[in-house]
Amino acid sequence: MRGKFITLEGGEGAGKSTQARLLTSWLHDRGFETVETREPGGTPGADAIRALLLDGDTPFTPTAEAHLFAAARADHVETLIRPALAAGRWVVCDRFVDSTLAYQGAAGKLGVDLVRSINETAIGDTWPDLTILLRTDTDTGTRRAIARDGAETDRFTNRDFAFHRAVGKAFDNFAEREPVRFAVVDGTKSIEQVAGAIRSAVETRLL
Ligand code: Z5A
Predict the structure, then answer these.
(1) pTM assigned to the model
(2) Atom 27 (ligand 1) nearest CA
(3) 135 and 8 Cβ atoms separated by less than 8 Å
(4) Which residues are CB-neighbours of 70 under 8 A, at least 6 positions away?
(5) Strand pairing category for 34-38 and 90-94
(6) pLDDT digits (tens, 9 = 90+) for 119-142
């Protein structure tokens, strides 16, 4: 039987990596075979593109940037996510296409429709069964990221507050439009409270 595909979305410092780890371990304890992964990245090819996108100084046009995220995603979906699901594994992914729709599409001004069409061949029919949106305000997310990383930033962390607010608003819109795929969780609560809310969403929607 095909496994389930769960993605975690939200702004910077929302707690996605922390919750991806906790959810994967909870699913594993319940007897599911699991794969924990993240975007951009997750395969050697996609990780090489991640380095270009996040760590490198090379400038890209917005359209080129959106295509690079989609190229990394195509490699990730074809070589890791789709085979894992076909083998019955549950895949937990820290960020996926909704991040590109929010960052490059809505906040980056390319537009959600164009970015969606750029991603169509990369994703095919491999859309998430459940997307957990961790809602936090920009201040909380930034404070957490700074407490963790200090002054270290990447190309996206460097954008201004208005950009990050637009990202948050875009995620809210996506969740409103697709209430069956999205579960919205208050990411400002404690790590354990957030983990509990995510487990409830998974139990209600997928088990
Ligand atoms: N990006 C894009 O533009 N387009 C795309 O298509 C994709 C990505 C896929 C990826 O950066 C950047 O790429 C991202 C968007 C862009 N940039 N931004 N902004 P990344 O992979 O390096 O990082 P990130 O995805 O933004 O995640 P993050 O900053 O690492 O945050 P997080 O995973 O959501 O949070 P965390 O690491 O789990 O937690 C952060 C800290 O807070 C940590 O010390 C935790 O212990 C703490 N924490 C977590 N939860 C809590 C709670 N509940 N209470 C208190 N403290 C907490």
Answers:
(1) 0.97
(2) 12
(3) no
(4) 100, 118, 119, 121, 122
(5) parallel
(6) 999 999 999 999 999 999 988 888
Measured from CB, residues less than 6 Å from any atom of ligand 1 are 10, 12-18, 39-40, 54, 69, 95, 99-100, 103-104, 144-145, 148, 156-157, 190-191, 194
Distance (Å, rounded) from C-alpha 122 to C-alpha 72? 9
Top mutation candidate among 16, 81, 96, 198 for ligand 1, by most atoms within 8 Å of CB? 16
Is 5-206 in CATH node 3.40.1010.10? no
Least confident piece of the model among 44-48, 57-61, 111-115? 57-61
Tokens of 137: 């305000």
Contacts 24+ apart (CB under 8 A), 103-106: 103/156, 103/167, 104/62, 104/65, 104/66, 104/69, 105/66, 105/170, 106/166, 106/167, 106/169, 106/170, 106/173
Calculate Rg over the CA atoms of the chain. 16
Q: Name every residue whose Cβ is closer than 8 Å to that of residue 33 and which is 6 or more positions away in sequence.
A: 3, 87, 88, 89, 90
Contact 122, 77 (CB under 8 A): yes
From the CA of 190, how far away is ligand 1's center (Å)? Answer: 16
